[in-house]
Amino acid sequence: MSVPNPTAARKLRKPAAVVSVLGAFALLASACAGGADAGTQQSADTTPVSGGNLNFAVSVDRGCIDPQQVGNNDAIAIARQTVSSLTSQDPKTGEIVPWLAEKFETNTNATSFTFTLRSGATFADGTAIDAASVKTNFEAIKALGAKATLGSTYLSDVSAITVKDPQTVVVDFSKPNAQFLQATSTFTLGLLSPASATLSEADRCAGKFSGSGPFSVKSYTVDKEAVLERRAGYNWPAATNSNKGEAYLDTVTFKIIPEAGNRTGSLQSGQIDATAAISAADISLFNGNGFWNETRANPGVVYNLYANQSNPKLKETAVRQAISKAINREEITKTLLTEGDQPAKGVLSHTTPYFKDYSELLKNDPDGAKKLLDDAGWKVGTDGVREKNGEKLSFKVTYWQSPKEVLELVQQQLKVIGVDLQLKFTTIADVTAAQADKTYDFSYGNLTRSDPDVLRTVFASTTARGGSNLREKLPVDDVLGEQAAALDKDARQKLVDEAQEILIKDAHSIPLYELSTTISASDKVKGLTFEASSRLDFYDAWLSK
Q1: pTM for the complete prediction?
Q2: Is 202 exposed, middle or buried, given 0-12, 13-18 or 19+ CB atoms closer than 10 A?
Q3: How far apart are CA 194 and CA 133, in angstroms?
Q4: Mapping DSSP to helix (H, G, I), strand (E, B) and coil, where does residue 174 land?
Q5: Fewer CB within 10 Å, N- or C-terminus of the chain?
Q6: Among the listed residues 363, 369, 356, the one whose alpha carbon sits nearest the alpha carbon of residue 501
Q7: Would strands 53-58 and 87-89 be described as parallel, antiparallel, or unpaired?
Q8: CA torsion angle for 400, 406, 409, 415 (degrees, to 10)?
Q9: Is the Cβ–Cβ distance between 296 and 35 less than 8 Å?
Q10: In this structure, are residues 107 and 121 in contact, taking their beta carbons and an 8 Å threshold?
Q11: How many angstroms separate the CA atoms of 482 and 453, rounded?
């Protein structure tokens, strides 16, 4: 397989020198991001009204709402409201803009980042947000290790964190790290008070921390609800927010409602005001008639089948390529998902900065898939399943996500080409254990992040978060490393494109569809929207009378 030659792009490295990120990097980060995708947008209304409680339903509670430890969407919806971050990311352009840091700089090889903090911002316990607290937070996240499922990867190559003065902190990396500015806009690098770093992991999960955001934890009852209350005196919003003072809502109550039908009924009856967990079959009920929907595709790596390439059968490129060709992605979205969901057009979602459409490489081609398997010596057996050397072309996908119908349809599509895909639905813990032990054939999932470096997190052989379990270094490793070092927009675009081509053409990635989030809400809910990573933002939200 031939791929574009990235030599020209790789020659763009320069000696280290400090440059303003508000200019150069903002341009870099703005490439190819998107906003809301589909649905009835919230109607414009008059001046926001302060007060009231917004009841919001989530489907599951993992027993933790610490922003630096959580990883699932429901917990993130709660945790995001409790912390401010050093930077923010514009959901329409991808631009990195100020929040707690009023300005930020990086050297030209992306190994050193300097943040100058705004004055006057405080944690909920009254402690000042200063450079020393940033150092404490980042060191605490590193100490959490794997329990900080996202933050620990963003900080993995930190070599030093230096407090230059009370308002200035410098974060140095041992290798180029162009993704770091976007990482500082995420909830997982949101800041907690220094005292919170001394709490046990369990106490932090229980919401006993003091955050830096517009809401604080009032109460948290596992498997029942979490109640957030407005922070008095909060007036340090991100540049992406329209509100410039305290949150409008007095409280936000996140109710745990596991059953999809109950969430639908609760929204219809007014027991809840909004949710992002309405089933695909019921979303149309909330298009008008006193309700609104808004959908946004999650940026990052789309839903994939991840092949464990330590399995000899899946180490065969032709087998992986055939499986990818056999999948009809349009059929998945049209028959099983909502009108706002889209088939995968590449490894990255279309709302991710530096997205490029690779639909041509992902066309459904069952005849081409059959030929690949024929040429590789896999012949159809009497039961319709292909065989070679006495071994069946049979695999098991271990997963915990819903809806299961997606994988059931993929199972039928692969059956057409003689591949037997067995489905094993289990718990997150069991999936994690199977990946660690390499006792699986395929895993399944996505990873949300509004930066293309998410490709490195998932697919580089040194990280292999997606579960590829590669035993040897592949060409994509070098390319992913190069894009992490590229601050020039055009250079990074070429490298991200090259990485996607390798992943798709050799089927290290088998993309299925873009995960999207749909807010369904009563018409009285205003200003509830998405941030750049398609996480929910309640700071601008308010309730009409």
Answers
A1: 0.84
A2: exposed
A3: 6
A4: coil
A5: C
A6: 356
A7: unpaired
A8: -40
A9: yes
A10: no
A11: 10
